[in-house]
Design brief:
The complex is a heterodimer of chains A (166) and B (213). Chain A has 166 residues and is mainly beta. Chain A contains two helices and eight strands, in the order H-E-H-E-E-E-E-E-E-E. Chain A has two domains: 28 residues; 133 residues, no CATH class. Chain A starts with a helix and ends with a strand. With 213 residues, chain B is of the alpha+beta class. Chain B has four domains: 50 residues, no CATH class; 61 residues, no CATH class; 37 residues, no CATH class; 35 residues, no CATH class. In chain B, the strands form two sheets. In chain B, strands 5-6-7-8 form a four-stranded antiparallel sheet, with no helix packed on it. In chain B, strands 2-3 form a two-stranded antiparallel sheet. Chain B starts with a helix and ends with a strand. About 5% of the residues of chain B have low confidence. The chains are: A mainly beta (166), B alpha+beta (213).
């Protein structure tokens, strides 16, 4: 099994290295796994220096209106730039990963539906191979979670997690 | 069953921790106690065999393994204490509470709170996300949680994190769906065009691997 996994990982790397235009060979599951909901996660760069923005062209997320305005209520910055975003099923029986960036990402374990709506989650925010924080949380619709992450340049990286309505 | 001190002596002999006099005294007993001699020599052989086959150093299973173990132990102790307290109370303990002079006052206040909750059911708390607990393995990091009504968001603020080097390029990914393969312990992630852009798997020690790097 270990050898097979290594071979699989290696083949994935080789496929990607030959060109991003070519699709890597995905591991496609034929099984639809049970879920406890769906989340949208994003990595956001907050800064006061417009010239420090990366130029990322990630589209706004329509289900979470006034995101920049709401972030500005919490984080004292003028500019908020979505660097990456990830829509993810919350698998009932398996861990779920929200990876809007390789720099900062999240592991989610579902603990089932919450009383009065939402879902109980165990969250882990990772920075490469280092876990920054572990939390137990109840995530509810229309109530995003803003996680203030590490400083970067003259600003800060922010992780946003939002329970989708679907 | 052997006496604990006897077990202790046996372990010290196997590990070579006895001084010359202690070792001589202990081995002198082998002449009169053949069962002890057999057990001691068998265990020493097993110990030597294990040491020969195990690496001198072993990696921890994951980055915050020791912190996790401490957390688990703290939780276990708290649960044990809670159970012990519950076990120690009974009807007699409950009656002692009733005899306390402040009980009537506290009971009245509790009834008032219950009545208020029944008359004015909570319409806000249930609609907000809530952080129930948070733990940062790095002791220099402080995790603060609160709800910001202006932002209509729940905030988990991590203060004290090391900065990402300014020269480092932090780039994002756009992922629209993923497929999990439990047998391979892997998750493959796809962009909006259905192209696989990322895979997360685990190595033999349970550490996650993101491919391509």
């Amino acid at each position: 099994m270990k050898a097979f996994l290594s071979a699989l990982t290696l083949s994935f790397c080789v496929a990607s290295a030959f060109g991003q235009e070519q699709a890597a060979q995905p591991v496609v599951s034929s099984v639809k796994h049970a879920t406890d909901g769906h989340v949208w996660g994003a990595l956001i760069f907050a800064t006061n220096q417009a010239d420090q923005l990366t130029g990322a062209k990630e589209p706004e997320y329509s289900d979470l209106p006034r995101l920049h305005e709401r972030l500005a209520r919490v984080f004292p910055f003028k500019h908020f730039e979505i660097l990456g975003q990830h829509r993810q099923d919350i698998f009932r029986e398996y861990e779920s990963w929200v990876v809007p960036s390789r720099e900062l990402f999240m592991k989610i374990d579902s603990k089932g539906p919450a009383d009065k709506g939402g879902v109980n989650l165990h969250l882990q925010v990772w920075r490469e191979h280092q876990v920054l924080v572990k939390s137990d949380a109840v995530l509810r619709k229309d109530s995003p979670l803003f996680i203030g992450g590490p400083p970067w340049k003259d600003g800060r990286l922010i992780f946003v997690l939002f329970l989708e309505r679907k | 069953m052997k006496h604990p001190s006897e077990e202790h002596d046996l372990v010290r002999w196997i590990d070579g921790e006895m001084n010359e006099a202690e070792r001589a005294t202990f081995e002198e007993r082998f002449k009169h106690e053949p069962a002890l001699a057999t057990e001691a020599r068998t265990m020493r052989a097993m110990s030597a065999s294990l040491r020969a086959h195990l690496p001198a150093e072993m990696r921890v299973p994951h980055a915050d393994y020791f912190n996790t173990q401490i957390e688990v132990r703290i939780t276990q102790i708290a649960l044990d204490e809670a159970r012990a307290k519950q076990g120690g109370t009974g009807w007699s303990a409950a009656l002692q509470w009733l005899r306390q002079p402040w009980f009537a006052l506290a009971g009245t206040a509790a009834l008032a709170v219950v009545g208020f909750v029944l008359l004015y059911p909570d319409t806000n708390g249930a609609s907000e996300s809530v952080i129930l607990s948070s733990f940062a393995p790095n002791t220099h990091v402080q995790a603060r949680t609160y709800h910001d009504s202006g932002a209509e968001a729940t905030v988990l603020m991590l203060d004290g994190l090391d900065a990402v080097p300014a020269e480092r390029k932090v780039s994002g990914i756009n992922i629209q769906r993923s497929e999990v393969e439990p047998e391979l312990a892997s998750t493959t992630m796809f962009n909006g065009q259905g192209t696989a852009v990322l895979m997360i798997s685990r190595d033999a020690l349970g550490n996650h691997l993101i491919s391509p790097h």
